[in-house]
Specification:
By secondary structure, the chain is of the alpha/beta class. Helix content is 40%, strand content 14%. It has helices at 27-38, 45-53, 57-64, 66-82, and strands at 17-21, 42-44, 88-90, 109-113. It has a four-stranded parallel β-sheet with strand order 2-3-1-4.
Length: 114
Amino acid sequence: MNHYYDYHMSTVLDQPIGLIGFFGCEAAQVGYNIASLTGLPFASLDRLVEHSMGCSIAELTAARGVKAYRDRLKACLNTELTSPPFGILALPPDALMGGDAGTQTGAMTLIYLR
């Protein structure tokens, strides 16, 4: 049921827009600002990993290792690339590293921040 004050997107994208860069480039802040100006949905891939695991990334890697983090990162990325409505997605610098972690990146517009 839609309510008057519910969120309503003014723009619909065919694929997500991914923001990526080196550590400290503030991809999440840039993504949040763009989303707030355009009305597009916004998600930070690191925050999605933390929410899905119920702990911080530091706790996850300490308890289960980096492989568990990368596996969850890949799963969250694939979910975001295949679940509309599409919006702005802030990616950690290592999101596309190694193996097949970036196999679905053709399904998004990727913007590199310096």
